[in-house]
Amino acid sequence: MITLENLSKSFRSTSGSVVALDDVTLDVPAGVVAGVVGPAGAGKSTLARVLSLRERPDSGVFRFDGRNTGMLDERSLRVARSRIGVVPTGESLLGQRTAAGNIAVPLEQAGMDGPARRERVGKVLDLVGLTDRAGTYPAELSAGQRQRVAVARALVGDPTVVLADDPTAGLDADGAAGVLAVLDRARAELGATVLVATQDTSVVRRIADDVAVLEHGRLVESGRLLELVGDQDSLVARAVLPAIDEPVPGGYAGVADVVLIGFAAVGSLLPEATSRYGTDIAVVGGGVTKIGETPVARFRLGLHGFGADAALGWLAERGASVHRQSVRELAVA
């Protein structure tokens, strides 16, 4: 669906050239929710503008549905843009138009007739859960509702790709949850590929299938989210899994950090390892979170008994990520 090959983009500033994207290579498959994460200035917004075909890269290739967008003529470029829905950062609605009126803007610009336009607007209002607010002006909506209207406006043209640049910025927990639920529905019910650029790793944890990490314009890590969290050394795992900050109590013969993914693994692997190998396994740190609907645990385990090594090996054979720790090093830390 989206393929970037050695893509770079820079801008001129008063202090010289600023590299916003530096040799980025990335694939986003069709039908996924992909999260692009990184701190302010990492290049996320520039990437979103390139993907929305509002900016051209200085070098490299952006392929959309297999076609090199750098080779498209103006007519083909307009057609490609029409297949990409954009949710901009911050407030973007027209204050003098109702929610329905704001959503209808792209259809009016495309010349769609009134009955077809009203039908399409009604469908996306239902999708974002705002049918009862169709005639309400932006000033009378909450911040989360206004952002859902912005998402609906991006969806009303039935795009194949939706780009959301920091869509939950400035929203409270309920508002953010509502926006993320709508983006997830866009993928599930409309079949759209969704790409979300954000500083907030909780956004990725809640809705992303794939994730890419940008730092200073460079892609430093990417892949399937559940695969990356299984690698305790990955940047993504460190960012989205529960932290382990608690000191290790004394008296344990060994300590190990484990990541368990899935309902069965989180619920049963540790008790079964304990009974199977006659060892004492105690959870001394960490916790459980969710990646989408999948529970993921990151625990620090205190170990007793001769069967500890065998138990850890058995856990690893069943898909757990296991890092044996030095009790002495942890005590010093």
From TrEMBL:
Domain (ABC transporter) ranges: 2-241
Keywords from the named record: Amino-acid transport, ATP-binding, Cell membrane, Membrane, Nucleotide-binding, Translocase, Transport
Keyword match DNA repair: no
Entry keyword Repeat: no
One Pfam family it belongs to: NIL
GO molecular function, one term: ATP binding
One record GO biological process: amino acid transport
Coiled coil: none
GO cellular component: plasma membrane
InterPro entries membership: AAA+_ATPase, ABC_transporter-like_ATP-bd, ABC_transporter-like_CS, ABC_transpr_LolD-like, NIL_domain, P-loop_NTPase
SUPFAM superfamilies attached to this UniProt entry: P-loop containing nucleoside triphosphate hydrolases
UniProt protein name: ABC transporter ATP-binding protein
Organism: Actinophytocola xinjiangensis
